[in-house]
Amino acid sequence: MTQSIGIARAHTNIALIKYWGKRDKELFLPMNSSLSLTLDAFYTDTKVVFDTELTADSFSLNQKEQSEKEIEKISRFLNLFREYIGEKRFARVESLNFVPTAAGLASSASAFAALALATASALQLDLSMEQLSTFARRGSGSSTRSLFGGFVEWEMGTCSEDSLARPIDPADWDLAMLVLAVDTSQKKVASREGMDHTVATSPFYQAWVDTAKADLAAIKKAIAERDFDKVGQIAEHNGMKMHATTLSANPPFTYWNAGSLLAQEAVRQVRQDLGVSAYMTMDAGPNVKVLCRASDVDKLVGALSQHFPADKIITSLPGKGASQLTEADWQASLERFGAGGQL
């Protein structure tokens, strides 16, 4: 076979119990287990073509050829699959990111989840999604969770084979998330760099690890009981604890900017004034995500629009797991991207 093709879509996820720190940088094994909600508003479509005619791997993102450094990163990831089955062919990788890149909106999660599924599809690998998540993890830890929909747990595991993701709840009980996109430009401190610096220098870091396990157990119990307020309270506290570790790193840094602080205060004010359950979380970026009930979305958007332009408030319902696409789907995505559908 001279050519084999796989195309896949994966949605982003927003961690409610954060992944922040690795105990093994080579295998991407986390310091703690984490839990997320997959979103339907943001996603990555990726096409992978293995071809005997190719003499090297290539990679384009959003229809732009990428640097040698980025291609090397993709090649290392593809090598995991090539070495697994003895594949010798190089590949052409094309990705369309319907997510602002490197802005703390989990673009790497959807990107590597889509790449993992597209690669496995092209090579016709017989892997469960849990097994596939152990491959995806080696590209981006949070991508393990983007292979599944709803609430997803990434189990820290004891080794590479059992550090994997599993779905725990479909999140089909009146849930939604708002994204207050205060700044979608590329962040100054990459997640990986910031994570490593925090682990190495923050005196608060061990407290983060010590409390994350209890947070995870508590939020899983709240999800099982469908106790929305408890889920939101745990998620908000966990996110703030993560950011406290960056402020205590040496030298200190933060992913927040002035807009982040205004967004946080706006959410608190709206929560108080409307008496609506709405809880914040933030990843490694300045944007604020608000977990809420789907039935409260219109009310919250109306109130928050007094503080932010309407185009900076993005609403999302829970998303589904990664899926394979057809060539027709891919062409439709190209058309959408070309028509300005990208964020």
Automatic annotation (TrEMBL):
Belongs to the diphosphomevalonate decarboxylase family. It comes from the Bacteria. It comes from Streptococcus oriscaviae. Its EC number is 4.1.1.33. Residues 10-165 form the Diphosphomevalonate decarboxylase-like N-terminal domain. This is diphosphomevalonate decarboxylase. Keywords: ATP-binding, Lipid biosynthesis, Lipid metabolism, Lyase, Nucleotide-binding. Coiled coil: none annotated. Residues 177-317 form the Mvd1 C-terminal domain. The keyword RNA-binding does not apply. InterPro entries: GHMP_kinase_C_sf, Mev_decarb, Mev_diP_decarb, MVD-like_N, Mvd1_C, Ribosomal_Su5_D2-typ_SF, Ribsml_uS5_D2-typ_fold_subgr. GO terms for molecular function: diphosphomevalonate decarboxylase activity. Pfam families: MDD_C (PF18376), MVD-like_N (PF22700).
